[in-house]
Design a protein that fits this description.
Elements (H helix, E strand, L loop, with lengths): L11 H8 L15 H15 L5 H8 L8 H14 L13 H10 L14 H8 L8 H12 L14 E3 L9 E3 L5 E8 H4 L3 H8 L5 E7 L5 E6 L9 E5 L4 E5 L8 E4 L5 E6 L5 E2 L3 E2 L7 E3 L19 E3 L1 E11 L4
Antiparallel strand pairs: 1-2, 3-14, 4-5, 4-14, 5-7, 6-9, 7-8, 10-11, 12-13
Helix pairs in contact: 1-2, 2-3
InterPro entries: TLDc_dom (IPR006571)
Protein name: TLDc domain-containing protein
Keywords: Signal
């Protein structure tokens, strides 16, 4: 997997796409960096944070109510981050000493209060939380056990509200979902490192697929580029351009929310490029391996450029793909 870290066998592009559809929600301009972009980043950046020691960035994400991930997985990532900050801990917590647990507890002292423990499933509590029980306050653990036995039993611990998911694609509604009743699922159509990086492979696997998300890891940088295409790409005889004002493109970089960009389609502009010699392309603004096997961004049909890097004489910022994935978003209830 393109962003797989030695700390854990995780699939960051898939975790990113789990948060991605939130970007279709109109941003809240009263809260600084727009909610859409913050949600878009979600745990994609936790996976980057895992390899460093950016506690502040991790805490800022844990405070959010709209991370589209089950709380049990959030717990797992936090534990892995904490362990990474304490080199030399045994791999199996059953072999840990009280000093080992105390070291982890001290490292995570600012993160542990932000976990929504009472939203973690009983199975995850037993399998993933109980092995690290010594890092939790005794009263909290007692209340967790009470809730597993009887969800309606009163407890003294502070119960944080469940995280929510704004409905991503349905712009006509303002429905909120929790991670447990999210109506969308994501089907991996293509992975470059698995299937290949040619235009033929792209068209064979993704032709006429609607509601798709492109995720690209740029080679040699910490950039993630991508976009959402609700109408899909349709293989032409040669090439054509299609308009769709629901498309958007984005970039994530430098491990910080503030340096991320979401760019929506301009109205009445050609936002999708179909070319049988090219991979997935959002007009000229994000082109994947064209007929010369070049990938680049050239500001044209979207509100703003998604890369802040030098351009060539054609106003293009070229890049190479380390990996890329395309997911299709499906409504579970429509199947």
């Amino acid at each position: 997997m393109v962003l797989a870290l030695s700390l854990a066998a995780v699939e960051p592009l898939q975790q990113l796409v789990l948060a991605l559809p939130l970007a279709a929600v109109e941003p809240n301009t009263t809260t600084g960096p727009c909610t859409a972009i913050c949600s878009l980043i979600g745990f994609a950046y936790i996976l980057l944070i895992l390899s460093f020691s950016q506690e502040n960035a991790l805490i800022s994400l844990l405070k959010r109510d709209d991370l589209q991930m089950e709380e049990g997985k959030i717990w797992n990532y936090v534990i892995k981050w904490g362990i990474a900050q304490n080199q030399g801990l045994p791999s199996d917590p059953e072999d840990w000493t009280l000093e080992n647990f105390q070291a982890l507890k001290t490292t995570l002292q600012n993160c542990l209060p932000l976990i929504r423990y009472f939203q973690i499933s009983g199975n995850d509590i037993v399998d993933n939380v109980q092995p690290y029980q010594p890092i939790l306050e005794k009263n909290l653990w007692k209340d967790i056990m009470k809730r597993i036995a009887d969800p309606n039993r009163p407890i003294s611990s502070i119960v944080l509200p469940p995280r929510i998911i704004l409905t991503p694609i349905d712009e006509k509604t303002t429905t909120y979902y929790s991670t447990r009743n999210n109506p969308y699922k994501f089907r991996l159509l293509l992975r470059g490192s698995r299937d290949g990086f040619t235009a033929d492979i792209f068209w064979n696997l993704c032709d006429k697929k609607e509601n798709v998300v492109l995720i690209i890891k740029v080679k040699g940088t910490d950039e993630i580029l991508g976009g959402y295409n609700p109408i899909g790409w349709e293989k032409p005889i040669t090439f054509n351009y299609i308009s769709c004002d629901k498309c958007f493109i984005f970039s994530l970089r430098n491990g910080t929310i503030q340096n991320s960009i979401l760019s929506r389609a301009k109205s009445q502009h050609k936002t999708i490029k179909n070319n049988f010699l090219c991979g997935p392309s959002f007009h000229y603004d994000l082109v994947s391996f064209n007929h010369k096997n070049k990938s680049y961004c050239q500001h044209a049909s979207y509100e703003k450029p998604i890369r802040n890097v030098p351009v060539d004489k054609h106003n293009r910022s070229c890049f190479s793909l380390e990996d890329y994935e395309i997911f299709q978003i499906n409504n579970k209830h429509a199947e």
